[in-house]
Amino acid sequence: MSVHTRRDAKGRRRYDVRLRDLQGRQFKRTFDTKRQAEDFAAKQRIRRAEAKWIDASGARIPLRQYAASWFETRADLRPRTRDTYEALLRLHILPHLGDRPLEQITVPLVRVWHGELIRTKSQNLAAKAYRLLGVILRTAVEDGLISKSPCSIRGAGIERSPERPIATIEQVFDLADAIAPRYRLTVLLACFAGLRKGEILALRRDRVDLAERTVTVREQLQELASGSFSVGGPKSSAGTRVVSLPDFLVGEIETHFASYVDDKSSALLFQGTRGGPLRRAVLQRAWAKARTELDLDYLHFHDLRHSGNTLAASTGASTRELMVRMGHASAEAALRYQHASRERDREIAAKLDAMVSGSLDQPPPDQPPPPQGAPSLGDSSSGCRGGKRLVA
Prior knowledge:
By secondary structure, the protein is mainly alpha-helical. The protein has three domains: 2-53, SH3 type barrels (Roll), CATH 2.30.30; 60-142, Orthogonal Bundle (DNA polymerase, domain 1), CATH 1.10.150.130; 169-340, Orthogonal Bundle (hpI Integrase, Chain A). Helix content is 46%, strand content 11%. The chain has helices at residues 34-49, 63-72, 79-97, 107-120, 123-142, 169-178, 184-192, 197-201, 247-260, 280-293, 302-314, 319-326, 332-340, 342-361, and strands spanning 2-7, 13-20, 26-31, 208-209, 214-217, 220-223, 229-232, 241-244, 384-385, 388-389. The strands form four sheets. A three-stranded antiparallel beta sheet has the order 1-2-3, covered by helices on one side. It has a three-stranded antiparallel beta sheet with strand order 4-5-8, with no helix packed on it. It has a two-stranded antiparallel sheet with strand order 6-7. A hairpin with a 5-residue loop joins strand 2 (13-20) and strand 3. Helix 7 runs antiparallel to helix 9 (247-260). The protein is elongated, with a radius of gyration of 32 Å. Residues 374-392 have low confidence and may be disordered.
């Protein structure tokens, strides 16, 4: 790495720093003054020594070009995830930042772009796009193209969704009654087995064990932007699970099997009109019609799973037990359902109250019973009423 002096076409001095990129190809950076060139060369030497050398030529690659190469190397992306990422790039990232060289994508620029998405679209969409941009630019850091990612805005990648409503058991059965009979079981499985829509649509006859009253979740059905289907594993390894069924669901499944499912072990529980997988749009239309009839338009299909998980939490299940049943790898969601279980909390409070009342109604074990005529713990004169201590 050295500084070379030359004169340009107008006779002005120019100072070139000649370097080699990470692939060994030579390139140069030109400066107006010798001091600027020497400072740049010194910084590059330090970065090389600290293994933080930046490929100056690569930093000038437009984001659009780098994002395309990033996609080519991500063979691990699930088909549906790839569809989502491509849409986020095409619609929300590249129109604003695609022609910018990587080195020109700064924190202020990202902040303006992110804020505009919130203003014109939504906070959650802005968070999704921001996270994807962050992943791509962190890879650019790993590739030695930029020194650090400009996606450093605190909280920008967090989605903030309002608390979803919880359907009552009566509402769930009303919805199951109102929806087309061939889709009744989807409502009950979503709520009382806690299955996701994609997991329900991928269920086969051999995944249901009526004798053991279990459903084994190993696949989920994804519908791609092209209209084709993709069957893959659940979102995480925790999503592969065996879910125990309430007894009443066994009868519901037997009825569904008899009416709508082929005898083959590989037969899908829910099929389209031509025998293929059931499309989400078809189920959504049936769901929308049922909830409208019941004046429950505010309920989403996924709210059934949310409601069922809240009911499961109200039984007193531990955090780990909820994680297993829900197919979650982290405890965050399970804790959220536990906290949301207010009815269970009231039951606990009532039981504590009964325990305290029972304890106060009994004399201490080491003391003899009070003499006849003495005030009891339940007398108002003793400071308690009905076995409950009065607090001023």
